[in-house]
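Contributing new complexes? Match this layout with adenosine-5'-diphosphate.
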Amino acid sequence: MRITVLAYRDKEDGEIADMAVGQVTAALRAGKHRVSVLGIHGDPRKLIAGLIRRKPELVFNLMEMFGDNLLGAVPVVGALDLVGVPYTGSGPGEYYLQEDKALTKRLLAFDNIPYPDFAVFSKDGGLETGGKLRLPLIVKPLRLNSSTGVTTRSIVRSDMELMNRVRQIHQSLRDAALVEEYVDGREFNVGILGNDEPVAFPPIEMDFSGLPVGAPHILDARAKWNERSTEFKDTQPVLADLPDERRARLQQVALNAYRAVRVRDYGRVDLRLTETGEIYVIEVNASCYLEKSSEYAMAAAAHGLDYPALINRIAELAMERHTRRDIGVRCRPRRPTPKLATI
Ligand SMILES: Nc1ncnc2c1ncn2[C@@H]1O[C@H](COP(=O)(O)OP(=O)(O)O)[C@@H](O)[C@H]1O
Ligand SMILES: [Mg+2]
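Output block (do not edit by hand):
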């Protein structure tokens, strides 16, 4: 198959920094596909022209931003829909359902999937609560991901701290603030692959035991991205060691959340487990990060899918979904010109 890997470029003439791009390309080539890479920063004309020139049968979409827009994933897949090319992962609607974390919670609520109680403080002063909240709380941006704006100071223990943190999110990230009850406990994520019959990989646990005593057990931005920080070195993803029943329950809750938010092809669900055995969904990541050493790839390997097999399976799932879609948008057939009635 002719596949174009769509990737984010730092600047219009900049680099493609994401290591996953080369890895996915190599995996697809190993799967005998003819693969090209299209690196785009923020010019929609380049995106459209690049696709028209390459004429891919499938786009492998690794583009999560557009220009400087951190929420660019939605318009990018919208453009792919307009061009009419099949692509891996979620479409604009599905992406939006998980990007807005309060909307995700509403969907989870309908299916009785547990999540921490929350409130949203919008910039225009609007307040939406999903229950009476108990301290401590954690304050995050409503729609940004990759732990943007999440630091150890995000955990607040008084009204004063809460309002300061909310104001900071409004001012520095220009997003609404999502305030959630802080769930103390172990943190897991469950990778999921598939559409009609999605499978859950073995859970990965975040091992916080390397952190200094008293440091909050959260995956903040430093722990995720700053390779030189102690938080990065002291938090390790490991294959979770759990009794069978508990593992199965985590996987089931994750699968329910994946379905509730209508994730397509692949995704990852972040969860927390309290000491008393309650499970809470923290967030659903549609089209999660696919780098070779990511937690998702690690979980797939534990399930028996090596990296090339995983990547080629995602391409296959997207193609299958596209071929048998039943609500396609088609042109309305031309009506025959009505015969003029003879008077
Ligand atoms: N309600 C919560 N209780 C405890 N920890 C949380 C909660 N929400 C977020 N965290 C911590 O912050 C991290 C990032 O939050 P998350 O909602 O997953 O946002 P992101 O989209 O940035 O990954 C989580 O991995 C977890 O460690
Ligand atoms: Mg997360």
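Reviewers usually confirm one structural detail per submission. For this one: The CA atoms of residues 38 and 50 lie 7 Å apart.
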